[in-house]
């Protein structure tokens, strides 16, 4: 299975979210800004934990979040670096390795076992979940919430697919 397109989607959606958070007025929307930074911090820490697990290194953290949250610019840099690393990792992974299991311990001490492909899908889905929470915070702050669904991504990447002709009715006549 080609994971490059879902990873390109993740990069696109992460970038849109980071840019929307950066546009927040930090005085009038301080709660939304703080919440978004906390969510982004969690997202990137989870990605960095799973990166270590994918390469067989020790976990770099004992938790998936921190009391002191890095500045948005640092989170932006780390999240985009993580995205580039994931793309390179998938692109250079030897054939047959994507389906192999890795064993690891979660930060709560419980053991886990996933294929490398499942780890990548987890990270894609994990980001989607937290971008949704950030989007809700943006809504509550009256800020711009970027559309970050996969369909918007596909049609932005391939505009000709948006107006490809009349829809086909696939309903059964039974």
TrEMBL record:
GO molecular function terms attached to this record = metal ion binding
The yes or no answer to whether the keyword ATP-binding is present is no
* Alphabetical keyword list: Metal-binding
Spell out the InterPro entries in the cross-references. Answer: DinB (IPR007837), DinB/YfiT-like (IPR034660)
Query: From what superkingdom does this record's organism come?
Result: Bacteria
State where a divalent metal cation binds: 42, 126, 130
Q: Which Gene3D superfamilies match?
A: dinb family like domain
Q: Does the keyword Glycoprotein apply?
A: no
Identify its protein family.
Belongs to the DinB family.
Question: What name goes with this protein?
Answer: Damage-inducible protein DinB
């Amino acid at each position: 299975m080609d994971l490059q397109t879902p990873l390109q989607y993740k990069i696109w959606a992460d970038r849109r979210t980071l840019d929307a958070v950066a546009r927040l007025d930090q005085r009038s929307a301080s709660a939304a800004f703080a919440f978004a930074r906390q969510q982004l911090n969690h997202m990137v820490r989870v990605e960095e934990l799973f990166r270590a697990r994918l390469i067989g290194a020790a976990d770099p953290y004992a938790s998936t979040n921190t009391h002191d949250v890095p500045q948005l610019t640092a989170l932006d840099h780390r999240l985009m670096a993580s995205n580039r690393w994931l793309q390179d990792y998938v692109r250079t992974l030897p054939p047959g390795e994507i389906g192999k299991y890795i064993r690891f311990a979660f930060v709560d001490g419980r053991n886990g076992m996933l294929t490398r492909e499942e780890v990548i899908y987890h990270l894609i889905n994990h980001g989607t979940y937290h971008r949704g929470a950030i989007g809700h915070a943006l809504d509550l702050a009256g800020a711009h919430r970027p559309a970050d669904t996969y369909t918007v991504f596909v049609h932005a990447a391939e505009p000709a697919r948006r107006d490809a002709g009349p829809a086909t009715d696939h309903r059964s006549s039974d």
